[in-house]
Specification:
The protein is built from five helices and 13 strands. It is an alpha/beta fold and about 325 residues long. α1 runs antiparallel to α2 and α2 runs antiparallel to α3. The longest helix has about 60 residues.
């Protein structure tokens, strides 16, 4: 009996060792497959990242062959491509090794620096001047008052907003607690600037070429369709009712924007931004949309690229859709 038990124990021990050997082989195979899958994933990421990096570098080279009239939109495209690459890295950081993640971040910083340096070189900042006029219409029951004083200044530099090409042709500067108006004849196809305004209500009835908003506090801005871009910077406690091809918002907070935009809006260093669809109406607005080349049926007011939020799975905390019951329905 003792010999039989020893034989059974020996057989069982051999079975156990064989089972352990098979399990060990299986674990090694699974580990090898996991490593291979991870390597394939990393290789795909690296290949895709390199391709996108080369695309941005190609766009930077192309910029040197374009005219100044083409450059603003071209640099908008470069900013968008860099942002997409940043989002791609952010979405892939779960499987990226730390050293590779840092390498990608360094590359992105270098691309941003190259784009900024080249933009400043090809689109140097120019001084602008405009008539500082108080234009008050019968609608607000005040007499029109024109002051032909000219003020010159320079827009503050910004990585995103150093894109002014032409001399600013009209607008308002350093005004407080006024109702201001520019008509279609005064702003049609022109570059318009509103700077250093506080507690003002401004009406721009027409179709400007570009609109610059800078250092606005406690203001309400109503603009007809802008055929290219609106550059808004340092706007706080404001309401903007604006329509454009592209919006670029920087360093602003507690802003309500009733927006019509045909491409995408870009924001950076902003917080507490509430968005709703554009709803301002005036007599010739349909004609102005047509002359500005904007399609009233295409409004991407929900399409926001936040340069300070690269998490593709969660909504940016810096902006939100305005609740319908809080939206102003009638601006008269």
């Amino acid at each position: 009996m003792e010999l039989i038990r020893e034989g059974v124990d020996k057989v069982n021990s051999m079975k156990i060792r064989e089972l352990e050997r098979k399990l060990n082989v299986q674990r090694k195979q699974e580990s090898k497959k996991s490593v291979m899958a991870e390597n394939e994933q990393l290789e795909f990421f690296e290949r895709t990242f390199d391709e996108k990096q080369k695309q941005v570098e190609t766009l930077l080279k192309q910029a040197q062959t374009l005219s100044k009239f083409e450059l603003p939109e071209h640099f908008n495209l470069i900013s968008k491509e860099i942002l997409l690459l940043q989002k791609y890295v952010a979405a892939s950081n779960l499987f990226l090794r730390n050293y590779f993640l840092k390498k990608c971040q360094t590359t992105l910083q270098e691309l941003n620096l190259k784009a900024t340096t080249l933009e400043n070189e090809l689109l140097p900042k120019k001084k602008f001047g405009f008539k500082n006029k108080s234009l008050k219409s019968k609608e607000v029951g005040e007499k029109r008052n024109r002051v032909d004083a000219v003020d010159s200044s320079i827009f503050p530099t910004s990585r995103l907003f150093d894109t002014s090409v032409h001399t600013i042709e009209c607008g308002f500067y350093k005004r407080h607690n006024e109702t201001l108006l520019l008509t279609r004849e005064e702003i049609a196809k022109k570059d318009v600037s509103l700077e250093r305004l506080s507690s003002c209500r401004v009406y721009l009835k027409g179709y400007p070429s570009t609109l610059h908003l800078n250092h606005l506090t406690d203001c309400q801005i109503f603009s007809g369709p802008v055929s290219t871009s609106i550059f808004a910077e340092n706007c706080n406690n404001c309401t903007l009712v604006i329509a454009c091809q592209q919006l670029r918002l920087h360093a602003s907070g507690n802003v309500s924007i009733y927006l019509h935009v045909t491409s995408r809006a870009i924001m950076e260093d902003c917080d507490d931004v509430a968005l709703a669809p554009y709803n301002w109406k005036y007599e010739s607005i349909d004609e102005d949309f047509a002359k500005a080349g904007l399609d009233k049926q295409v409004n991407n007011w929900r399409c926001i690229d936040d340069f300070n939020w690269l998490n593709v799975e969660r909504h940016s905390p810096h902006w939100s859709e305005m609740e319908e019951n809080k939206r102003v329905k009638d601006w008269t």
